[in-house]
Amino acid sequence: WINENMIIPQLSWVEIDLGNWQTAQQLLDRLLQRRSYALSPLQLHAVVTQCDLWRRQGRLEEARQLLEPLVQSNHFEDKAALGAWTVLAQLYALNQQDTAAVQALDQAVAIWQKLGASCDEGLQIATVIAIYSRAGQTARLQTVIDAIHACPPAAPDSLAHVFRSNVEGVIALAEQRWHAAATYFSEAIPLFQRIGFVYHEAAAQQHLAEAYLRSPAAATHTEAISSALHTARDTFERLGAPLDLADVETLIKQHNLRRPRPASSRTVELTPRETQVIALLARGLSNRAIAEELVISPKTAEIHVSNILGKLALSSRAQVAAYAVELGLLTRTEPD
After folding, report:
1. Measuring CA to CA, which of 14, 135, 199, 206 is 20 to 30 A from 163?
2. Distance (Å, rounded) from C-alpha 96 to C-alpha 237?
3. Does the model's pTM come out above 0.70?
């Protein structure tokens, strides 16, 4: 049993970031249903992942009630404790409990420093920066930023490089360097797209729009802002992330941003295969799943997706999904 289930916490985390939330929940249920009086270290890791999923789904109170007593019991190993305190801080911040959020982050940062203050936990570090910044914790924030900048650069083709670009964007937002923030998020978005981390891509799209909106040249970026926010909106709606969706919709309404229209099918020639790929993209399939569906190689599927984005002048899979819905491709197109 241990050998069979020991990868579930990590695998479920990957499924969450890929946008396969139902699959992630099934994996977590499989492990956590075996819960006894005392949770095993493996199950404690799964609890952190479960609470992070619930946070994204807006189930804040359920996550808090499960996680809060566990972190206070000090049963977590350091690696899991870092994630647990970070998720708990996010739950407090979303409930406007800034003091509790900062206290939870202090615990997380202490563990991070104990583990060597590496930049490997890029997504958690971004959370630390955002919450410290919002709470006005300048000294704490600067300590974390200095530690990040002391980290060696990541290899360009590594996952750490993707997270580092995103973290640098969050730092630039905190320091009100709007142009730099937009540059970093513009770099992070296609990297997230490449690995299929749809939730983080949508969050980066939102951050990109926020950077442009706060810059002195916001009026010159209206189209980019609208595209980024509507892309994020479509992804959050499809995933079932109500709090993120509400934030993005508020920005769209505040700035009266209309959805950019995709290129017309009358002016763009798509091959029959590309039309099939679009329909599968709109169903939320990854490049690998598209390859299996169409009995082609994953590399060929990746090329088709890249060609489609180029032809339609779109920047994300979510925009392709909106295009497919507009043209009715979901109902009239089936793979061979």
Report:
1. 135
2. 23
3. yes
